[in-house]
Amino acid sequence: APACARRTLAALADERFDVVHLHEPLVPGPCLTTLVVTDIPLVGTVHAAGVSAAYRWAARPLAWAAGRLASRCAVSDEAAVLARRSLGGSYDVLPNGVEVARFADADPWPSEGPTVLFLGRHEPRKGLAVLIEALAMLSPDVRLWVAGDGPDTARLRAATVGDARVSWLGRISDAERSSRMRGADVLCAPSLHGESFGVVLLEAMAAGTVVVASDLTGYAAVARAGREALLVAPGDAGALARALTAALARPDRVAALVDAGRARAQELSMDRLAERYLERYLAVL
After folding, report:
1. Domain of residue 33, residue span
2. Domain containing 133 — which CATH number?
3. Is the dihedral of CA 127, 185, 143, 117 positive or negative?
4. 52 — pLDDT class (breaks 50, 70, 90)
5. Could you tell me the end-to-end alpha-carbon distance of the chain, in angstroms, rounded to an integer?
6. Do the beta carbons of residue 274 and residue 281 sit within 8 Å?
């Protein structure tokens, strides 16, 4: 909108930034406005992965705009592939970071038995329906915390009516998110497709929680199969149930995954990410 563009231009003029970092630089609004009009050195980070209608139908003008970036980054290999294919250029892969202490130091939320946590929008792509199907194959003492909401909430809640094992939490605060992450035994991310990077997996590893997730490229780049997580074929409720059972029933395996996950979270911490971006800011000056 014109008002947004005016505010963006005013901020650029008033603040006299040395470098501007744009996340999803081609999205209309402040990012694209800045990309098109300023001569300030720009660092851009792309997040989208898989397919992009905008890249497909407006590839030429978007490629021109992307050419104004002094440094190009992507949050995952998958995001870099899409950007290179659609826009050209080269991209440094700098995975998203996690605030380790926020999750590692949170007070665990009390639980009443082995507990699995789901965090995400309730839509088909996120695979919550697969997790609910898998729950029927788990031990009757397993509890499921479901956070978030979305277009499938009512239908999926109806499918679990009468099942006291399932707690529908709705939207929760950041503090409760960290506490639930620490209190759960397993974080389950059963997405079916379209994940360029698994931030929620990284948060779970920082909290010392076991990760069971779909074997997607974006997830596997964060939590590697058999090292920091148990990964299963997307949409396979039986395989998901077996992985959850193993995560809840094998303390020896769990300890190794948790230790490796904590180390991985430190490797991908926000502090480390800031250092890597600072190098790129200095390089474009």
Report:
1. 2-95+270-284
2. 3.40.50.2000
3. negative
4. confident
5. 30
6. no
